[in-house]
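Annotators were shown the component list below and the corresponding predicted structure, then asked to write short factual statements about the assembly.
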Amino acid sequence: MSVSLRRIGLVAARDYKATITSRGFLVGLLIMPALAVILLVLIPRILNSRSPDIAGQVMVIDPTGKVAPQLTQTATPTAILQRRSMEAGQNPAAPAAPAQPGRPATAAAGPPVPNFSLVPLPGDTDVSDHKSWLIQPRDAIPQHLAIVVVRPDALVRRANSGAFGNFDLYTSTRIDDNTETTLRDSVRAALISARLRDAGVDPAAVASAQQVMQPESTVVTAAGAHSGSRGLARFLPFACGILIFMGVMTAGMGLMTSTVEEKSNRVIEVLLAAVSPLELMYGKLLGQLGLGLTLTAVYLLVSVYTLGQFSLAGMLDPMLIVYVIVFFVATYLVFGSLMLTIGSAVNQMAEAQSFQGPLIILLVAGYSLTPVIGAAPNSSFSVAMSFIPPVNTFAMIARIASSAPPPAWQIWTTLLVSCVAAGLVVWFAAKVFKVALLMHGKPPNIATLIKWARMA
Amino acid sequence: MTAALEIQGIRKVFGDKVAIESLDLAIPTGATYGLIGPSGAGKTTAIRMIMSILFPDRGSISVFGKGSALEAKDRIGYLPEERGSYRKMTVGAFLTYMGCLKGKTRAQAFGRADRLLGRLGLPDVIAKKCEDLSKGMLQRVQFVASIVNEPDLLILDEPFGGLDPVSVRLLKEVIAEEQHRGATIIFSTHVMAHAEELCQQIVMIHQGRKVLDEPMSGLRRQYDTRHILLEPLDAAANLLSLQTIPGIENVKLNDQGCEIRLAPGTDPGGAVRAIAALVAPARIELARIRLEDVFIRLVGASGAAAESQDALRTHLQGLSNTGATS
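Structure shown to annotators:
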């Protein structure tokens, strides 16, 4: 049976225009970029700009007399920032904006840096007499944040276990989790320094010896060597999966919704007077494909722009964008056709829920696999998943986006498998679509759908 | 005259139910055919097969010499019984879209849609959204959608359902214009008075089978008149006394007077004279043959119907109120 490309184009154009100008789609289209901007740009700025200055007093009871002096060095804002940089694998010696209490020195440096004022007490002080010091009105200045009690054996190894003694911390209700963690780390650093000095070792030498900066890795392939960002390599497979998921989900749901609406509005028979069921189906598939591509293009642009903000856009392989689009189309044809089938078979959206549930689970499973597969792109599991539809497209895009892309023959095989799967699903969808369009009444089950496919 | 539509021995079964059985039909170009029968007779199924929306299990359908309506869709206009529109689209966009799907350019489709809307009393709706129209207005828009492509074959499935009398009159005028233009028209209805008024040929379907395929003029000749309508000069006249006249089978009172059914073989002229002699008439006339009666006689004679005549009359909705007379 021949189909008219002109009529398919007209149906596609109408479906595309009707969906892309709908309020729901525009809101949906803007949600992702808006979330990206909020998460990556606005929230850090808001958090940083609105973080209250954290400053307060910390009482120190040190029977050893050696830890408190170290603490005056390890609890300063500069020392706190240096520790954070080392933990993040950055060079603590790199130039940075001067640290201000309450604000980190760099945007990515983490929570605000507190400014502790130490109040040393004699080593034989009984902490029980001073616990009430931590209880004060909410607006009292200066804030009493904590009492650090260094145990007498903190610098002496016990004979039986070989372990050093510890310290105790008493806190007020005005200290938050981040500030308490920072204080604990500062005391811990002070204890280590004191112990090293006690053992005749220079703490600065040990600190230097412990500093190993994270180098930028260079990936060597047959095509040559290229530098890569470890963070980007971990993020890209998941990002590509999300892109495909969002496009397929939006376009697929659009297909299902518009078909159900055409059935419930009773416009379907009017349409079938002008186009054949196949022309209608292909037109709708094409229209929503255009919609999905538009959505994917917008998200890609936003992604590239966002990477550009972190000077990472140049590390994105243009071929990856091509693969994202190709695998989006393959995934869309499979899931879109199935959603179209559901739309044609039911009378209302509520009836579609029992059918669409398994499809959405499959889709979510597909993109949920991407970080796992991206982390081990050439494992047996990853290779096997690349050839099992309908999740093979997600698996393959995750592998392509990873730091160790698969061989070309595997990419082509995945494409071939996807094409065969898409062809079979479109063929099944066409059969059901032709019969189901004019069916009303009780919603069908899977067996009925198969029966309809046989009837057509 | 060449055939616009030829159907040979089509059969369609849904599950255990035979919807259409061995239907043959040939409709010449330019003719207006009425496809009539009670609800559930198989009319819509037959039309859907003509439109290639459904396909017969057996038999063949040829439209303008093509093996399928799919190959001649641009030449066909179809107003289905279950008709709708895109609620969010404007009337102009919807009608232009339908016209374009049927081979017209945007300008041609929009121009003809605008003209037809004006003709049907809807000159100001072209920029309105379909969801903003009343049901009656939307039905007229849907009718325009079926003829926006100037079809050579126009299939109308219950076109007057739910319309007010003024709209019905407007639609009938436009249908008549389409007839004059030379379009072949298939008109499906269970309201047989409409078919009597508009159609040259009547095809009756009952339980999926064709029980009649005759020209209206032949029907009028073939089936003798058995109804007399009487409006008495004196509103208080005893009309039930007419039952005493030989040859009168039944007298049915109505608001104007009564409807008198004659026994088979009774001379209508003699009966009119006898009635006028008994009750002075303000108006007395022989009713034209009614398709309802033809249908009941055919079905009853064939023995195919298990239903009683009353049940059949109930199926033929709308007849008692809309029967045409002359």
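Statements collected:
1. Chain B has two domains: 3-217, 220-322.
2. The CA atoms of residues 247 and 270 of chain B lie 10 Å apart.
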